[in-house]
Amino acid sequence: MSLKKNATMYREVVESQTLLINTQSKLMESQNRDVIKFGFGQSPFLPPKSVIEALRASAHEKAYTSVQGDAVLRERISRFHKEHNGLSVQPENILIASGSKTLLYSILLAFKKADVLIPQPAWVSYAPQAKLTGHHIIKLPTTFESRWRVTAEIIHRAVSQKKHDTTIMIFNYPGNPDGLTYSGEELQSIAEAVGEHNILVISDEIYGLLDHRDRHLSFANYYPQKTITTTGLSKWCGAGGWRLGVALLYDDIPAPFKKVLIGIGSETYSCAPTPVQMAAGEAYRNYESIKPYLARQRSILSSLGQYCYRQLNRANIRLHPPQGGFYLFPDFSLHQEKLRSAGITHSAELCQRILQDTGVALLPASAFGFDDHLLAARLAYVDFEEPGEEVSFDIATHAPKVVTGIRRICEWVEDL
Ligand code: PMP
Ligand code: GLU
Fold this sequence. Notes:
By secondary structure, the chain is an alpha/beta fold.
């Protein structure tokens, strides 16, 4: 066989399910097929006008910045997070890159061999990244009954499977795919457990500013000794395609670790696009002035999330009321018998059939770390357009596709 055709010479990685469902849904739309896009988790909101204007005005900023990112932007991010919830990070401990996904990858790549603890469920890209960077993955299994929460006990149990000296835990809330968050007591107890095992925590708080009640607590305030927080413009600022991510390191980060992170950045992305960094400078300029913009998103996402939760719950689809971000993780297992009779025993089959029969795109539980038998899926309630801040948001008028999509899922289940 020719070397080029021998697949074993390549790394094992396929296109991320999130980006794949986005391409598929768009293709269906371009073929005039009736599709409701609950598959891809992209913010439906536009960035604030002043931020769009700042991007426009920065097109001529063509020079590279430092690898770490523009100094003024890092100062503003430091102040912004302090004002938001008391998170204290020095500007010199901030890294900017083209998306927090890139930063997550750099952090994992910085270590030669580590055990990486990943909650189940968790966002689609953590496990492929840990695999690409050669680490040993340990799942943190959670249950519907415990609201998919990681606990100290789960962590203590997981570390018995350790193979290496370094342990990293990837933690994420408000959660993708579950839409849930943690209380201060829960975070305290998790902090004690990770402290006991000297675990480095990557706290993915990209949905932190979209906590529906504006009560987001940062893990670094509970475990300041070894938490890297990741965030960025993709969710709260509606700018996923601009690709701007932020990593907030910690005060006592070992100098060689930080050097390696900057080294990886310098040998891969060089710096985040300069005009986008300038626009981010506007987004992070003043937390007070961005508050009304955030409050509107939270109020829309909260009422829409509660609406979807109530409707699905009424159709006997199990799920928890959302607390942040824009995801739900409906579990269809109460309909297991009927689904089995219809030939559906896997989450991937479940999503394929729902798409085929109703035009609603979801992502299967298997994409979030479960074995295929859990009959659950992720639903991103984002298929709507924000009507403009002057208009008061009405679900039926401004999110008709969300209403239709939820109704179709409920009817599909009832008609099984
Ligand atoms: N973490 C989670 C939980 C996400 O949902 C996403 C998707 N945007 C990311 C990280 C990556 O975000 P970014 O656009 O900053 O790369
Ligand atoms: N985070 C989004 C999601 O989970 C999509 C973007 C991405 O995966 O990079 O759907």
